[in-house]
Amino acid sequence: MAKAAKRASEEIGSPPPPTHNRERPPEPQRHQASREELLEYYRQMLLIRRFEERAGQLYGLGLIGGFCHLYIGQEAVAVGLQSAMEPGKDSVITGYRDHGHMLAYGIDPRVIMAELTGRAAGISRGKGGSMHMFSVEHKFYGGHGIVGAQVSLGTGLAFKHKYSGDGGVCLAYFGDGAANQGQVYESFNMAELWKLPMIYVIENNQYAMGTSVNRASAEDQLYRRGESFRIPGIQVDGMDVLAVRGAATTALDWVRSGKGPILLELKTYRYRGHSMSDPAKYRSREEVQSVREKSDPIEAVKRELAAAGVSEDELKKIDTEIKRIVTESADFAEQSPEPDAAELYTDVLVETY
Amino acid sequence: MPIELKMPALSPTMEEGTLAKWLVKEGDTVTSGTILAEIETDKATMEFEAVDEGVVAKILVAEGTDEVKVGTVIAVLAGEGEDAAGVAGAAHDGAGAAEAIAASPAEEAQAQQATVAARPKQEAAPASLRVEPEVPEGTEMIRQTVREALRDAMAEEMRSDDRVFVMGEEVAEYQGAYKVTQGLLDEFGARRVIDTPITEYGFAGVGTGAAMGGLRPIIEFMTFNFAMQAIDHIINSAAKTNYMSGGQMRCPIVFRGPNGAAARVGAQHSQNYGPWYASVPGLIVIAPYTAADAKGLLKAAIRSEDPVVFLENELLYGQSFDVPKLDDYVLPIGKARVAREGKDVTLVSYSIGVGVALDAATKLAEQGIEAEVIDLRTLRPLDKETVLRSLAKTNRMVCVEEGWPVCSISSEIMATAMEEGFDDLDAPVLRVTDEDVPLPYAANLERMALIDVDKVVAAARKVCYR
């Protein structure tokens, strides 16, 4: 269910705030997905879920080190948004919780998993790790470990789209925690000033590490964070892939028509800890359990599929296929050799001086 | 009493200016606030207002006159009850013809004290300085300021590559806070010469993202002091991405602007970031001294596939040097230059320190010590080979650095000398750097805190055991 921003005038009465006369995008409509589209969403979301579960296992076995941030629970966001983007034309950038976005962008799960295990076959040749993965070929620009950095970098990608007149749009994901970083607002200002083709996506999973949104944000309705910059915001149910896809369409229409940036707040939830080393003291087990039972994005698609007449058997077949892909990725990631020692010194600079 | 109107100092570094236009003529009555003239400074064209009331008795410096020293009497006002004609005659007798406006030595000295007292006087580039062997014999030279050379470098690269653009505070309509981007907006338009809000972290990130997307941004920081707000993108985003992506994602960007101490602007606006950036793998760091190097290296920086931090110096912007008149003058990154040959001691420096080292070398020569001066030009990668070759020749070395001593480029050169040139050393390497304090404002304290020729001469004599 996509919910448009309430007009500020409805909330505080007269005199009407300046937002009153501003053009707003229309209320997003929940996407009417075809059977094939639904199956594809299901397939992608399940791939992310199973992939991340396996990554969690490999972390436990010591095969993955350092920080590892899992996307479990948030699958509908990346899948719904990216299904609307034009591959090869639009660009995407995100923070450190990046495995899901890459999978939703069709990047080979084997090279992602091999990066997690730090192997030569990894997408960054083992030199980036979980938080630093890129695929220029797919116009996926990372994978950034500094909270909020991807927002200004993404604004730069949007600048590039406009400068080159290539018709592309940049989509930058960031979390409710990053939404409090100063550079986010510096970027908002420039993006609106220069009418850049930019979709800002706040994935509000309710917790910045262990700090809940309302303990960290004076304005906790994050879709309103663009208002001072005249950037319209839309709040979206991030647990419903069809609502997400509908909002993506609205946002893309707005941006592609040259109206400048737009802000989407996707209300979602992460089931796992912030990273693998999360003590989980800041929320109750019951809270997590309740979201899983009532709002799981994959279960929701399953229900849609049943209503569309897709049989259990058909879903089972997909499940089996996904399991195979993930097992293969894990095997590949475990068996690939570590980078050659000489790799230590390569790629520091492009040129030789 | 007639009132003398003197060439004003309209910026902290202005020593002379152009009297672009008179807006009053002899015989005009002026009051406080009347705009008398337009004066072009090293940074901008400014209006010169009257403070006193009176009648313009005599204009002593014609409009269009260049290089009018600060403090020069440019006109005389007859005060209330005075006869303008009489005052004019007296002024003429006293100050002489307009050409002979070089005011009395005492007056000039006084003016200088008032405006640039903080700095050791910036000498014109020494005559011994000849452009490096990178230029073919017989190449025609033109005299250019560092500022002009930098602008030409950008303009030439922008003409040949549409991906190159300039972004920063006041780079477009204002024509550059230090006039380095002067004229670029007119030639290239607002699409490619972009004024930003005051938002360093933000526009450094936007530039870096644009470079990742395939453009070739030149990001101007009004000064590198403000780049501290943006250092995360310079280091974490620009410098590391190529490595972290296994060579997939490049970041061909130039971050440029003035670095180091200016004049009398206090601690927050006076710092040399050379050592900071030079410590980061993944960055190229360039800090030129001459206009020719500024041009050739900035062009190389813009063409480089790697992220470059290009450190200029405000006090050098207005200095003139010979620049080769070539269609495409590009210098190699990572190569030092022997700025002066000598056999007794090596002085290693970069940026504004090179001028101090060259002046010291002149003084040392008078005392029978032949100093070799190495201009590093690039701080990362460091041209250790040239430094060590010179050390092998002179066996004595002094580092000269307008910056703090601790963890400095000097520290790095000294470590290199010990690790790789120990057998060539006849004396411990010394360093002449700024004092280890935030830069003070007071003229006398600022002077004490900065490097100067005498300190370099003393250190050179010491390593020569003289």
From TrEMBL, chain A:
Residues 1-34 are annotated as: Disordered. One of its GO terms (molecular function) is pyruvate dehydrogenase (acetyl-transferring) activity. Its cofactor is thiamine diphosphate. Keywords: Oxidoreductase, Pyruvate, Thiamine pyrophosphate. Residues 20-34 have a biased composition (Basic and acidic residues). It comes from Sphingomonas parva. Residues 44-341 form the Dehydrogenase E1 component domain. It comes from the Bacteria. Gene3D superfamilies: 3.40.50.970. The pyruvate dehydrogenase complex catalyzes the overall conversion of pyruvate to acetyl-CoA and CO(2). It contains multiple copies of three enzymatic components: pyruvate dehydrogenase (E1), dihydrolipoamide acetyltransferase (E2) and lipoamide dehydrogenase (E3). This is Pyruvate dehydrogenase E1 component subunit alpha. GO terms for biological process: pyruvate decarboxylation to acetyl-CoA. It holds the Pfam family E1_dh. The keyword Isomerase does not apply.
From TrEMBL, chain B:
Keywords: Lipoyl, Oxidoreductase, Pyruvate, Thiamine pyrophosphate. Pfam families: Biotin_lipoyl, Transket_pyr, Transketolase_C. Its cofactor is thiamine diphosphate; (R)-lipoate. The pyruvate dehydrogenase complex catalyzes the overall conversion of pyruvate to acetyl-CoA and CO(2). It contains multiple copies of three enzymatic components: pyruvate dehydrogenase (E1), dihydrolipoamide acetyltransferase (E2) and lipoamide dehydrogenase (E3). It is an enzyme of class 1 (oxidoreductase). SUPFAM superfamilies: Single hybrid motif, Thiamin diphosphate-binding fold (THDP-binding), TK C-terminal domain-like. Heterodimer of an alpha and a beta chain. GO terms for biological process: pyruvate decarboxylation to acetyl-CoA. Residues 2-78 form the Lipoyl-binding domain. GO terms for molecular function: pyruvate dehydrogenase (acetyl-transferring) activity. Its EC number is 1.2.4.1. NCBIfam families: PRK09212.1, PRK11892.1. It catalyses: N(6)-[(R)-lipoyl]-L-lysyl-[protein] + pyruvate + H(+) = N(6)-[(R)-S(8)-acetyldihydrolipoyl]-L-lysyl-[protein] + CO2. It comes from the Bacteria. SMART domains: Transket_pyr. Transmembrane segments: none annotated. InterPro entries: 2-oxoA_DH_lipoyl-BS, Biotin_lipoyl, PDHB_mito-type, Single_hybrid_motif, THDP-binding, Transketo_C/PFOR_II, Transketolase-like_Pyr-bd, Transketolase_C. Gene3D superfamilies: 2.40.50.100, 3.40.50.920, 3.40.50.970. This is Pyruvate dehydrogenase E1 component subunit beta. The keyword Oxidoreductase applies.
